[in-house]
Amino acid sequence: EASLYIVATPIGNLDDITLRAVEILKKVDFIAAEDTRHSQRLMNHLGVTARMMALHEHNERDKSQALIDKIKEGKSIALVSDAGTPLISDPGYFLVKLAREQGVRVVPIPGVSAVVTALSVSGLPSDRFVFEGFLPAKQGGKIKRLEAFLYETRTVIFYESPHRIVDTLEAMDEVYGSERYLVIARELTKTFETIKGDSLGALREWVDGDLNQQKGEFVLLLEGVVESPDVSTIEQDKMLTLLMAEMP
Ligand code: SAM
């Protein structure tokens, strides 16, 4: 049956691709890629020759139906992104939603994602976590979004790019205070892989003082707050209202 395969590719080290991913990429009729030139390098490395088509955030809405029509005609398509698992802070959501709505078979070919890779080595609680992806670019919007996690008890995971790492650490310091514990996972699976956990204040000092630590790709993992054993303020308020009603 012709299908849409959602294929995870490496986030750095080219060996981090599954045997099944290679098999599928060699078998499909077309590969839809976020950046065809970027993905062509990986395909050359793997010896994959399928025709490439561009599917990125700017054309996803226009192109998706045409891709689905091809699958309905019996052609199989693999979707890949520049790195890691498609749809995870990457294009593909619209295509997959449309495919499923139209009864086209969507098959996951799982593999790496930076969020899980970082969490697995962070040393932070990993039983419950929140993935927030990229923060808003502007400092005001960023601070507002960060404030939503002020009392979050789960580990909170963010993606960040080199242009914004310094500003984001500053915003986090402002919102959570310099004592809050954070883990920075930089350049995972690559030559300059760095995984460092410390207080926000100490990490800021370290990153601000070393230009090398501002380069590359980042996952930021924020430790959650300890769940308070007290009755919540909401419950206290409720109790107070009840008591007041009873008073003469
Ligand atoms: N689809 C990808 C995934 O499954 O992780 C994420 C794509 S998103 C456009 C790119 C962001 O992912 C980067 O800015 C960074 O936050 C994170 N990322 C990707 N590769 C990474 C790596 N090798 N080390 C650290 N972070 C990485």
TrEMBL record:
User: Organism's domain of life?
Assistant: Bacteria
Single annotated GO MF:
methyltransferase activity
Keywords, in A-Z order: Cytoplasm, Methyltransferase, rRNA processing, S-adenosyl-L-methionine, Transferase
Query: Where is it localised?
Result: Cytoplasm
| Record-level GO BP terms | methylation
Please give the CDD domains that the UniProt record associates with this protein: RsmI
Query: What's the top EC group for this one?
Result: transferase
Domain Tetrapyrrole methylase spans what residues?
Answer: 4-201
The record's catalysed reaction(s) read:
cytidine(1402) in 16S rRNA + S-adenosyl-L-methionine = 2'-O-methylcytidine(1402) in 16S rRNA + S-adenosyl-L-homocysteine + H(+)
Tell me where it mainly resides.
Answer: cytoplasm
Q: Which InterPro entries match?
A: 4pyrrol_Mease, 4pyrrol_Methylase_sf, 4pyrrole_Mease_sub1, 4pyrrole_Mease_sub2, rRNA_ssu_MeTfrase_I, RsmI_HTH, SAM_MeTrfase_RsmI_CS
Q: Known EC number(s)?
A: 2.1.1.198
PANTHER family in alphabetical order: RIBOSOMAL RNA SMALL SUBUNIT METHYLTRANSFERASE I
Physiological role: Catalyzes the 2'-O-methylation of the ribose of cytidine 1402 (C1402) in 16S rRNA.
Q: Which family does it belong to?
A: Belongs to the methyltransferase superfamily. RsmI family.
This protein's name: Ribosomal RNA small subunit methyltransferase I
Q: Which organism is it from?
A: Alkalimarinus alittae
For this protein's source organism, the top of the classification is: Bacteria, Pseudomonadati, Pseudomonadota, Gammaproteobacteria, Alteromonadales
